[in-house]
Design a protein that fits this description.
Elements (H helix, E strand, L loop, with lengths): L1 H46 L6 E6 L2 E9 L4 E10 L4 E9 L4 E8 L1
Antiparallel strand pairs: 1-2, 2-3, 3-4, 4-5
């Protein structure tokens, strides 16, 4: 009886750890897709005069779309939408300073 209780406790702990491991891997995958999209848009903005106001990036585990909005003469807001292969939708906002030619702020909304 004691052994059964010990075995059940270990199995429960194992299943919690596996679940946490899966969630962490999914979180890191999502962050990777956001970061790659963020860098691609930042490079486009800093290296070219004309940039498309909307675009899409395809990844193995999801798709990221972006839309660029002008806040004022020096700052752009870029809305990133990630749709994962599981159907989850996540949003993030990047703020690009045209004088500094780089992203200056990042916010995520889940």
């Amino acid at each position: 009886m004691l052994f059964s209780g010990f075995l059940a406790l270990n199995f429960h702990q194992y299943s919690i750890e596996k679940s946490l491991q899966f969630e962490l891997a999914e979180f890191e995958r999502n962050q990777f897709m956001f970061m790659q999209s963020f860098k691609k848009v930042e490079n486009q903005l800093s290296n070219t005069e004309e940039v498309e106001k909307t675009g899409i990036f395809y990844f193995e585990n999801g798709t990221v779309t972006y839309q660029i909005n002008e806040l004022d003469s020096t700052q752009l807001q870029i809305l990133f939408r990630l749709v994962t292969s599981t159907g989850a939708e996540l949003e993030g906002f990047g703020y690009y300073d045209q004088n500094l030619e780089k992203m200056v702020k990042w916010l995520e909304r889940n």
